Amino acid sequence: MRDDNCIFCKIAAGEIPSATLYEDDDFRVILDLGPASKGHALILPKEHYRNLFDLDDELAAKVMVLAKKMVNQLKDVLGCDGYNIVQNNEEVAGQTVFHFHMHLIPRYEGDQVGLGWKMGELTETDKEEILMKLKK
Ligand code: AMP
Ligand code: ZN
Predict the structure, then answer these.
(1) Which are the catalytic amino acids?
(2) In this predicted structure, what is the pLDDT of residue 1?
(3) Residue 27: what are its φ and ψ, rounded to 5°?
């Protein structure tokens, strides 16, 4: 599966050059061109899936194993203090490139990377509604 209008399909296939950190039959891992921090990388499947809603089950499992391998290697190379794994699905969630990708964002003590949210409170109504609807 491939989308001829998709830039990440072209990068994953090696048709557009990228700073490739790792490649296998299923994935290419590249440095993000607009990094949140030094070493910000993206895992791209070679096949086109719009996002997690569509991703093949086997690839979904493989991508987390690869993320683990990459962050373990990169934390030593970069000397970072932690990692955020971020994965955006649909525009409302911040997705701008509609080919599934996983962000590997190194974190450094004192960095200004702005990830996070204002904590709310789980209400009884929300909890009951969600649990009830999910059981149907
Ligand atoms: P998202 O907002 O989750 O869809 O993330 C898209 C990411 O792709 C952003 O972090 C961009 O900086 C990055 N990006 C866009 N085009 C390229 C490119 N040609 N090469 C590398 N990274 C890119
Ligand atoms: Zn694509």
Answers:
(1) 101
(2) 82
(3) -135, 155
Ligand 1 atom closest to residue 96's alpha carbon, by position in its atom list: 4
DSSP 107: E
Distance 40 CA to ligand 1 centre (A): 10
Q: Using one digit for the tens of pLDDT, what is the confidence trace for 74-125? A: 999 999 999 999 999 999 999 999 999 999 999 999 999 999 999 999 999 9
Residues with CB under 6 A from ligand 1: 7, 18, 30, 32-34, 42, 88, 94-97
- pTM, rounded to two decimals: 0.97
Strand order across the beta sheet in which 82-86 lies: 20-23, 27-31, 41-45, 102-107, 82-86
